Amino acid sequence: MNLLRLLTLCLALFAANSANAEEARPLAADPVTEQRLLAITGELRCLVCQNETIAASNADLANDLREQIRGMIQSGKSDDEIIDFLVTRYGDYVLYRPPVKNITLFLWGGPLLFFIAGIFGLRHYLVRRNRQIAAGDALSDADKRLAEALLAGEAPVTPDPSKTPPS
Fold first, then answer.
1. Which residues, in sequence order, are bridge partners of residue 45?
2. What is the pLDDT of residue 163?
3. Is residue 60 classed exposed, middle or buried when 0-12, 13-18 and 19+ CB atoms within 10 A define those classes?
4. What's the pTM value of the predicted model, to 2 decimals?
């Protein structure tokens, strides 16, 4: 009986919640304007979310910017004029693909510089390691004979008494 009550309560809550759902309204009444709006806002970064486009963001600022861009489109401004306005107002950060300038050179060239530095660092490490291995202690003649005998399966394992640690 308790299960039936719980199920009825869940169904009632679900029905009450879905009664508040609204149909998504289009971004603009004109399909051409809507397409331009989506194209422009798809290239701009949401300043609140930072990893979302203005088109995909639900932040209040993104909604305001979409409304502002829609108004600019309806007033006859070109895409470049709209983007220039937003860059003037918010800086190059609003663009997902910032232009190559003196200020953004490290942004564009930084990954390549880090990659090249990593290659040189790896090469330096490997050369140094190979030198240490080549200059390392070679096996003595007795150790070589013991190793050859062990590999051939002829001699029992007998440690060198001179190399045992003192007790």
1. 53
2. 62
3. exposed
4. 0.52
